[in-house]
Amino acid sequence: MIKLFAIDMDGTLLNSEDTVSESTTEAIQKLNSAGVKSVLCSGRIATSLDYANSLMGVDNPTIANNGAIIKLNKDKILNTHPLKDEDLKDLIAFAEKCKVHYHFYDDDTYYSNTLNPKSLHHLRIESNYGINVQCKLNISTDPFDELKSKGKDGLKILIGNLSDHPYGEDEVRRLFDEEFSDRVYITTSGPGSFEIMEPNVTKWNGILELAEFLGINKDETAAIGDSYNDLPMLEEAQLSFAMGNSADEIKEIAKYTVADNNSGGIAEAVDIILNYNKENPSV
């Protein structure tokens, strides 16, 4: 029986307009009413996942920053796995040396030395009086110092906007791999950027940590996603779903391929899980 459904956000829960469709909200509410806990798992900052849950009328656990922070609900953090200060400082210095855009997060704040609207697009909240965002913003000449002045740790750093970089995306990634791959874990959730956490920080390890706390076994988990940072959870979950908009490599790993993020993929996966639970009730 499936008791926990881990759900990626960008390209999965969210449609191409970065919103949660009505059919997706209804499917998530139906799933939770049937006793299966939906858990948003994303590279995004934790407050962004909290915001998405609020849109769907739930206050469930979340796994943010690719597993670097695990929350039981909007207000309670179960655990964090931050970057070492030395690693974060060196990553920032290398990013500035390569002249690439970077930003990093703690539990509720976005830090950078540049204000780039393209990098804030995924955090926007449209309103009738301007543009709001889903987290605090801290833009300064020394964002690491700003982080430490608050007594906090960095959870994930993103190197982004690489499609416009003169080196090219592949070369920037090669340089960071060469310099840091023995110290940190580097992954990607889509073209134009990559994300860096401490070693062994993945969505799947976050799921295992949360599941253990909740008394849920590995074979009682399901997962859905569309990109490379979803691979560990799709490889290990009892039931795994690739979105129709996923790369072929993702589809090859998952047990099921469902419709794309504009065509009810989440609802299709929910129906499969509920049918699976009818056929495999808890003993």
| Structural class assignment | alpha/beta
Portion in strands: 15-25%
- Determine Rg (CA atoms, Å): 18 Å
Numbering strands along the chain, what is their spatial order in the largest sheet?
Answer: 5-4-3-2-1-14-15-16
Count of DSSP E strands?
Answer: 16
Secondary structure: helix percent: 25-40%
Which ranges are low-confidence, i.e. pLDDT below 50, for 5 or more consecutive residues?
A: none
Give the termini distance in whole angstroms: 9 Å
The number of distinct helices, counting runs of at least 4 residues, comes to 11
Biggest sheet: strands, sense, closure?
8 strands, mixed
- Helix/strand order: EHHEHEEEHEEHEEEHEHEEHEHEHEH
Structure summarized in a few sentences:
With 283 residues, the protein is of the alpha/beta class. It has helices at 9-13, 22-33, 46-56, 85-97, 117-120, 143-149, 169-180, 203-214, 231-236, 248-253, 265-279; strands spanning 4-7, 37-41, 62-64, 69-71, 77-80, 101-105, 109-112, 124-127, 130-133, 136-139, 156-160, 185-187, 194-197, 221-225, 239-242, 256-257. Helix 2 packs parallel to helix 11.
What keyword list fits this structure?
283 residues; alpha/beta; 6-stranded mixed sheet; 8-stranded mixed sheet
Could you characterize the architecture of this molecule?
The chain is an alpha/beta fold and 283 residues long. The protein is built from eleven helices and 16 strands. The chain has helices at residues 9-13, 22-33, 46-56, 85-97, 117-120, 143-149, 169-180, 203-214, 231-236, 248-253, 265-279, and strands at 4-7, 37-41, 62-64, 69-71, 77-80, 101-105, 109-112, 124-127, 130-133, 136-139, 156-160, 185-187, 194-197, 221-225, 239-242, 256-257. Strand 14, helix 9 (231-236) and strand 15 (239-242) form a beta-alpha-beta unit. The protein starts with a strand and ends with a helix.
